[in-house]
Each structure stands twice: as structure tokens, then as C-alpha cells.
Design brief:
Elements lengths: L6 H10 L1 H15 L9 E2 L13 H11 L5 H16 L3 E6 L2 H12 L13 E6 L4 H4 L4 E3 L27 E6 L8 E2 L4 E2 L8 H14 L4 E7 L18 H12 L4 E5 L10 H4 L3 E5 L10 E6 H11 L24 H16 L2 H18 L4 H4 L3 E5 L4 E5 L16 H6 L3 H8 L2 E2 L7 E4 L14 H22 L4
Parallel strand pairs: 1-14, 3-5, 3-8, 4-5, 8-9, 9-10
Antiparallel strand pairs: 2-11, 6-7, 10-11, 12-13, 13-15
Helix pairs in contact: 2-15, 2-16, 3-11, 4-11, 5-10, 7-8, 12-16, 15-16
Length: 488
């Protein structure tokens, strides 16, 4: 294969050779010995919305039992609140919602947007967000600032247009996007766009930069937001002695200095065994409970009581007019209320996280062991540039390959998030050719988690199945590296 000196030429060559890569991938799947009955029914993660993992036996049993009982929904919401308070303390509260994205929407609308009532024109507010991965989620609710970022959300999803990502923008709200110190925003991909490479982020320097932005925009500052992840590929590899990402702690400190809330989007995260809101200092953390927590489809908002009162009011949970601590009524965001089965699943998942955390952490430990063993077999040149870490927060193993790129040589091909949505991310489309359902794998970062045909009904890892999926990924990375000219 030819050696390339220009990135776009390498990616153009890959695009031209996609049929050949696919053919080699299918042949490799046979050589690996992936059973025919397994193909198309297992994958590298059970924690994505497009193809979630099956419910565990405990959750199914809870649904079966609860579905035959008469239970006021306010009682179920209060049970969720009680479990959260058991773990975090009585100064925290919770509100279930139908999805994590809905949780972001109601939280930002409640805490970040200016009031709509009263005489005269609305004033403008602005929140701060680091220039980080998944920006189209927690960064989709305000007009991007500076203007050079005006189109940053345009291709970051499959529902573009006025009622797509642009339709999420809230009343008189903008967002300041702050590039992180040490990050690399170079352009990559067959669908050629800037990618977000974060393993070298300097949290202290980044926090100082963000504080300068907060000072500059203090008259309109209404909040700060970020992801809640804790891995190097997401920019949170530097942690304090308690294991809390330093950047998250600094963002909380800046927010509180300006008396505005710090809201964390922890969609691919779990409460209790993952991000600890008490240690980070966040005001609100929002979860997608069906991703890593093994719940039914639902979101969960956890936060400090003073801000949760406003969020619960927006959802109609705050109490009846005649005076109760909770209700299940009508409010601005009643369209996002979860139903009975969703609440039952959240309760069972939270109980398991509280009472039996090892049941959720052990599959991560077992998967990490499999991933490390299988990547020991990858070509030494690729292996030298890998960072492999595990996260209990996301219940996943992260494989990052940013460091295959050097000043002297183009590295292992990096696909942009635009490639993911365009279908031109070969690390995703290629494993599909091998009968493996892909995972989130863009910006030189691959998240692998248990659940999709790789766990039993109790949620424990079936190592042989997981090994087939990881082995397929390893082989595909070598095939792509050969066609890109990275490997001879």
C-alpha cells in the first residue's frame, strides 16, 4: 500500500478501498470463527440508544410484579428520591424523566434561560461549555459563540434542520464554546471535519482559560456544563486522589464563584458507583438510565435540593396545590414524564447499584481483562500508541489511539463524528460486515461495554462472546491500518 504525507489523500484512498476492506473483514470473521448463530446478535456495546442491551432478569421480574399492582406514580417517584437520598444524603433530590436528552432540555430551560414574563424585552443569557466530545447534546440548547462555531452542530446528528438540532435552541440563550488547553482539533475523516482529541488536556490551564471567559461574560453568565465521563479520551484522565476528574471540580468552583449552576451530562454513566456529585461539586447530573445502568428506557436527574425544586416543578412533581411533598401532575414538561414501567425499571436498577454494586462492576473488570488480552495480539506498531482504561462510571473499557499519530508519520485513521452519522466510519461499518454490532468509535476513541449478546440474564460477562467481538475489532483495525499505509 502507498505511504501518504497528506491526511486527505489517505482518507480518499480508504474511501476508494471500502469494498476491499469489507471483503477482508468478512473473510477475517470466518478465520476468527465467529459462530453463525451469533452474528448480527451481539456487539461491542449494549449501551447505545440505537441498539440497547436486553433487560436483566431482576429488572424483568420487577416489571412483571409491578405491572399487576395498583401503584400511584407519585409513590414510585418518591421511592426513586428515597434511594438517591440513601446514597448521597438528604440534601440531594431526584426527578425521573423519559430520556436523558429530555433531562438536559428541562434542566437548561429551568436553570439557564432568562425569564419570559414581565414587561419589556427579554435579556440574553449565556452558558459555558468546553469544546469536547458529544457537544451536540449538552451544547445544542444555545446559539454558539464565538460565531466561528455557528455550524458546529450542523452535521453532528441525523436530524438536521430547523426542527432537528437547531430546533433545540432555547429562548434567548447562547453558549460560549471554549477549546481546552492541550487538546487537538485537527481535521480528519472520510467526511472531512475537525475531530476532538483530548488525551493531553491540561485541566488546570483549561480551568484558568474558562475562568477568564466567565469573567469576560459575567453579566450574562447563567451556567456551566460539561460531560461527566472520567476517561482520558474524553479529556478527564487527570484525577484527584479521590478519583474525581480535576477539570470537573474546577468547573464547579468557577460556577459557584459566579453563583450559577454547574450541570453535568452523564448520559453514558451510572449513579452511585460512577460519578459522585458530592465530590465533583456539580449542582445537577443527568443520566440515561437505559445505557449503562441496565434500566428500562428512562432518564434521571439528580441534583442539589434547591435547584431540584425548580426542575421538579417544571415536571409537575413538586406537589399538589393544597400542599404535598410530591405529585404526578401537569406542568411545562409533562410531555417528558416517564410511565409506570419506566419508573419500575429505574427503581430496580438503582436498588442494584446501591445494594449490589459488584454485580455491575464485575462485568467491567472481566471485560477489561478480555480487551487487554486481545489487544496484546494487535500489531506492535498500533499497540505502542494505545491507551486502554476502564470506567465504572460508564461501565465501559476505553481504547484510545490518538498517540499512533506523530509529527513524523500519519497514524491509525481517525474518523469524525460526521463519519459516524454518514456511515463512512469504517471501524463501525467494518465490524458490521463481520456480524458484530458496532459501538461509539469516533475521534480516535472506542468505547466497549458489556450487554449486547455478551452477558447472561444476570448481567454477567460471557467471556467467549465478548472475546469474539473484541477480536473482530482488533483484526479490523489492522486491516484498515494496512489500507491507510500505516502498516506495511
Amino acid at each position: 500500500m502507498p505511504k501518504f504525507k497528506k491526511k486527505f489523500e489517505m482518507y480518499r484512498h480508504l474511501q476508494m478501498n471500502i469494498p476491499n476492506i469489507y471483503a477482508e473483514a468478512r473473510k477475517a470473521a470466518d478465520e476468527i470463527g465467529i459462530p453463525a448463530e451469533l452474528r448480527g446478535k451481539f456487539g461491542l456495546t449494549g449501551a447505545i440508544s440505537g441498539c440497547p442491551s436486553p433487560l436483566t432478569k431482576k429488572v424483568r421480574e420487577a416489571l412483571d410484579k409491578g405491572s399487576t399492582e395498583v401503584i400511584p406514580l407519585a409513590k414510585l417517584v418518591d421511592e426513586i428520591r428515597s434511594i438517591v437520598k440513601d446514597v448521597y444524603g438528604d440534601e440531594y433530590d431526584a426527578a425521573p424523566i423519559n430520556t436523558c436528552e429530555a433531562g438536559l432540555w428541562v434542566t437548561f430551560d429551568t436553570l439557564f434561560t432568562p425569564p419570559m414574563q414581565g414587561r419589556g424585552d427579554n435579556y440574553l443569557t449565556r452558558y459555558i461549555i468546553p469544546y469536547e466530545k458529544h457537544l451536540h447534546h449538552h451544547g445544542g440548547y444555545g446559539r454558539p459563540f464565538p460565531p466561528k462555531f455557528k455550524d458546529i452542530l450542523a452535521d453532528r446528528g441525523c436530524t438536521a434542520g430547523e426542527l432537528g438540532f437547531y430546533g433545540k435552541r432555547q429562548n434567548n440563550l447562547s453558549e460560549y464554546i471554549v477549546p481546552l488547553v492541550g487538546a487537538d482539533y485537527s481535521v480528519h475523516g472520510i467526511k472531512y471535519h475537525p475531530v476532538i482529541l483530548l488525551t493531553k488536556v491540561d485541566p488546570e490551564a483549561s480551568a484558568k482559560k474558562i475562568k477568564v471567559v466567565a469573567e469576560r461574560h459575567c453579566t450574562m453568565l447563567s451556567g456551566i456544563t460539561s460531560l461527566g465521563y472520567d476517561t482520558p479520551g474524553y479529556g478527564y484522565g487527570v484525577k484527584d486522589p479521590d478519583g474525581t476528574p480535576v477539570l470537573q471540580k474546577r468547573l464547579a468552583e468557577i460556577a459557584h464563584e459566579y453563583d450559577v449552576p454547574y450541570v453535568i451530562d452523564n448520559a453514558w454513566g451510572v449513579p452511585f458507583v460512577g460519578h459522585d456529585i458530592r465530590k465533583s461539586g456539580a449542582d445537577v447530573v443527568i443520566y440515561s438510565m437505559d445505557k449503562a445502568s441496565e434500566s428500562t428506557t428512562a432518564g434521571l436527574i439528580i441534583g442539589k435540593e434547591d435547584v431540584m425544586v425548580q426542575i421538579r416543578r417544571a415536571l409537575g412533581y413538586h406537589g399538589d396545590r393544597y400542599g404535598t411533598t410530591a405529585s404526578y401532575g401537569k406542568a411545562a414538561y409533562v410531555t417528558n414524564d416517564p410511565g409506570k414501567e419506566a419508573l419500575l425499571g429505574v427503581i430496580e436498577a438503582l436498588k442494584e447499584l446501591r445494594d449490589n454494586p459488584e454485580a455491575l462492576t464485575k462485568p467491567v473488570d472481566d471485560l477489561y481483562e478480555v480487551v487487554v488480552e486481545e489487544f496484546e495480539q494487535i500489531h506492535p506498531k498500533i499497540k505502542k500508541g494505545l491507551i486502554i482504561t476502564k470506567s465504572y462510571n460508564s461501565r465501559a473499557v476505553e481504547v484510545n489511539y490518538e498517540n499512533t499519530w506523530t509529527k513524523d508519520e500519519l497514524g491509525l485513521p481517525i474518523f469524525s463524528i460526521e463519519d459516524m452519522y454518514a456511515g463512512s466510519n469504517i471501524f463501525q461499518s467494518g465490524v458490521s460486515q463481520m456480524g458484530v454490532i458496532p459501538t461509539v468509535a469516533y475521534d480516535a476513541n472506542i468505547f466497549i461495554s458489556p450487554g449486547l449478546g455478551t452477558t447472561d440474564e444476570d448481567g454477567q460477562l460471557i467471556k467467549d462472546n465478548a472475546r469474539f467481538a473484541v477480536r473482530a475489532l482488533v483484526k479490523l483495525m489492522e486491516i484498515v491500518a494496512k489500507y491507510s499505509g500505516y502498516l506495511d
